[in-house]
Amino acid sequence: MTDRGPEPPRLPVLMARRTVSLVPGLALTIGLGWTSVWLADVIGVRLLGFAKTPVSPVMLAIVLGLVLRAVAPFPKALTPGVEFSVTRVLRLGIILLGIRLSIGDAFNLGAYGVPIVLICVAAALFPTTRLNRLLGLPGRLGALIAVGTSICGVTAIVAMAPAIEAEEDEVAYAVAVITVFGLMATLLYPFVAHFAFGGREVEAGLFLGTSVHDTSQVVGAASVYADLFGAPRALEAATVTKLVRNVFMLAVIPLVALHHARSGGGREMAGKASLAGLFPQFILGFLLLAVVRSIGDSGVADGGQAFGVWDASAWTALHGTVKTGAEYLLLVALAGVGMSTDFRSFGRLGLKPFLVGLGAALAVGLVSFVAISALGSLVTL
C-alpha cells in the first residue's frame, strides 16, 4: 500500500481555523469602536454641552487605532482580524447604511432645492481635485477629500476608498481633514447662517445642510441654530437637505472613480475604466437598502404599514436599529484603518491636505451662499 501522507485539512477545519484567527484583531477593533462612542459622548455632551455630540466617533476610532499602533507592539496574531475589519466589516457597514436614505426626501426638497444641492456638490468636487493636483498630492487623497466635502463626510470617504483602491493612510488622513473642518463648521456656521440669512429659517437650514460635511455635524450645527435663534424649521430644512446630499453618493462615487482611473489611477484601474466596471458592488447593496427604506416609508405615509407588517413606530424603530448597527460597523472598520496605518506616514504629506480641505470648505460655503441667495426663497418645506 502506497503511503499517501497525511490528508490535507478538510474545508470545515480550515474555516474553523480562519474564524479563530480573526478573533484577536476583531475583538480589538470592536473594543476601540465602543470606546470611541464613549469618548465622543464625553467630549461633545459632557464637556462641550451639546445635546448630541458633534464630535465624530469615527475620527476618534481612527485616532485610537493610530495611537495604539504607535505606542504598542503589533503582534501578527492581530493581522487577520484587523484586515477583516478594514475589508468585510467596512463593506457590510456601508451596505446597511443605505437604510437611512429615503429617496423620497429629494421630492420633499422640491424643484429648486435639489439644484442647490447639486450645485454645491459640484462646487466641492472640482476645485478640490484641482487644488489637490496643484499641491502635488496623491490623486486618491484628493478624490477622498472631494467626496467627503461634497457628499456626506466620513461615510463618503469610506465608501469611496475601495472603489479607488486607496491606502489606509490616505483614508485616515482624509477622515482627519474632513472631521477638523466639519467640526469647525459645526461651531461657526450657525452664526454665519444667521448673519447671512437673518431670520429666514429655511434658507439658513439649506446653508447648513449644504456646507457642513458630516450628517451628525449638520444636525449639530442646525440644532445650535434652532436653539439660539428660535428657528425649529431650520433643523428640518438642514436635515432634509443633508439626506438629499447623501443620495448623490450613488452617482458621485462611481463617477469620481471613473475620473480617477482615466486620469492615471494605475494600469489595473485604467484597464477597467468604464462606469460599469468601476461601480462598487457594495454600492448596489447600499442602493437596495435605500429602495427598501423608501418602499417602507411610502407604506406608512398614510397611516398604513411598511410591507404590510410594521406600523409607523415599529418601522421607525426597525430601520433605526439597522442604521445604528451600520454606524457601529463603520467604527469597527475605521478603528482597523487606524491600526493598519503607520503614523509616520503622515509626515510625508505635511499640512498640504489640510490646505486642500480648507479650500474645499471655503469653496462649498461660498457657492452655497450664492446659490441659496438666488434660489433659496423659492424652496418651501
Task: Give an account of the 3D structure.
The chain has 381 residues and is mostly helical. The chain has one domain. 77% of the residues lie in helices and 0% in strands. It is built from 16 helices and no strands. The longest helix has 37 residues. It is globular. The termini are far apart. The relative contact order is 0.18.
Can I get a quick summary?
The chain is an all-alpha fold and 381 residues long. It has helices at residues 11-47, 57-71, 79-97, 105-134, 139-152, 154-163, 168-197, 201-211, 215-229, 232-247, 249-262, 267-271, 275-278, 281-300, 312-340, 352-375.
Task: Find the count of extended strands (DSSP E, 2+ residues).
Answer: 0
SSE ordering: HHHHHHHHHHHHHHHH
- N- and C-termini, Cα separation: 84 Å
Provide the helix percentage: over 70%
> Rg, please?
22 Å
**Mean model confidence by pLDDT:** 82
The assigned structural class equals mainly alpha
Please tell me the total number of domains.
1
